[in-house]
UniProtKB/TrEMBL annotation:
Residues 1-37 are annotated as: Disordered. InterPro entries: PsdUridine_s_RsuA/RluB/E/F_cat, PsdUridine_synth_cat_dom_sf, PsdUridine_synth_RsuA/RluA, PsdUridine_synth_RsuA/RluB/E/F, PsdUridine_synth_RsuA/RluB_CS, RsuA_PseudoU_synthase, TruA/RsuA/RluB/E/F_N. Residues 13-35 have a biased composition (Basic residues). Keywords: Isomerase. Residues 44-188 form the Pseudouridine synthase RsuA/RluA-like domain. One of its GO terms (biological process) is pseudouridine synthesis. This is Pseudouridine synthase. Belongs to the pseudouridine synthase RsuA family. Pfam families: PseudoU_synth_2 (PF00849).
Length: 229
């Protein structure tokens, strides 16, 4: 009578099996994701991104990137800011902090200054505040108000304004980050965006930074930020 082998494989055998599986995956081109190790010293960089700059450090089409402005290695953008948008970009060498800032589930607030074509009426402003239905779902309620033109730098190149059509400035506060959300929201209510500047992200702002300038948070500033989150 044959005896059933009830002996469980040892950890060494499991390792051997996993090793063989990993070897097969390697031969078949299966990539294993690896997390970046957390740095011993966390760096946080605030950058006032100019218009027409990509939020990445390399580009095979030779367009302007972060490398043209920021000499610090191993920092990565937390969240995105479109090439045709301006303003605050936060970079860090910490994967955990990057996730806290960029992941929608943490609801980090963003404040934008938005120049739109036309003069918003109360109905349009209320639509933006309550949320509008986009192709990828309805936007969350937003803080929206009409503001005076902010004291900011001229854009290069300047926006294209149409004769006899006025422009206005809105301040829009969001706690989500759909792709090109602000532009799609204003277009939805009949107010095309002409210029978009992110003024604040979480508790950070571009105050004191000219376009193309950056600064690194010091130890005390970073400690204060950690106490808030």
């Amino acid at each position: 009578m044959l005896q059933q082998n009830t002996k469980k494989p040892s950890f060494g055998q499991k390792k051997h099996i996993n090793k063989a599986k990993n070897s097969r995956n390697s031969r078949q081109g299966v990539k294993r994701k690896t997390k970046r190790p957390e740095p011993a010293v966390v760096k946080v960089v605030l950058f006032n991104k100019p218009y027409d700059v990509l939020t990445q450090f390399t580009d095979d089409q030779h367009r302007k990137t972060l490398k043209d402005y920021i000499p610090i290695e191993n920092v990565y953008a937390a969240g995105r800011l479109d090439k045709d948008s301006e303003g605050l970009l936060v970079l860090t060498n910490s994967g955990k902090l990057q996730n806290v800032l960029a992941n929608p589930k943490f609801d980090k607030s963003k404040l934008y200054w938005v120049q739109v074509e036309g003069e918003p009426n109360q109905q349009q402003l209320q639509q933006l505040r309550q949320g509008v239905e986009l192709k990828d779902g309805k936007t969350k309620p937003a803080k929206v108000r009409l503001i005076e033109p902010p004291a900011i730098w001229p854009r290069n190149p300047p926006i294209r304004e149409r004769k006899n059509i006025p422009t206005s400035w809105l301040e829009i506060g969001l706690q989500e980050g759909k792709n090109r959300q602000v532009r799609r929201m204003t277009a939805h209510v009949g107010l095309p965006t002409l210029r978009l500047i992110r003024h604040q992200f979480s508790s950070f702002s571009i105050d004191g930074l000219a376009p193309g300038e950056w600064r690194e948070l010091d130890t005390e500033e970073f400690k204060q930020y950690l106490e808030q989150i």
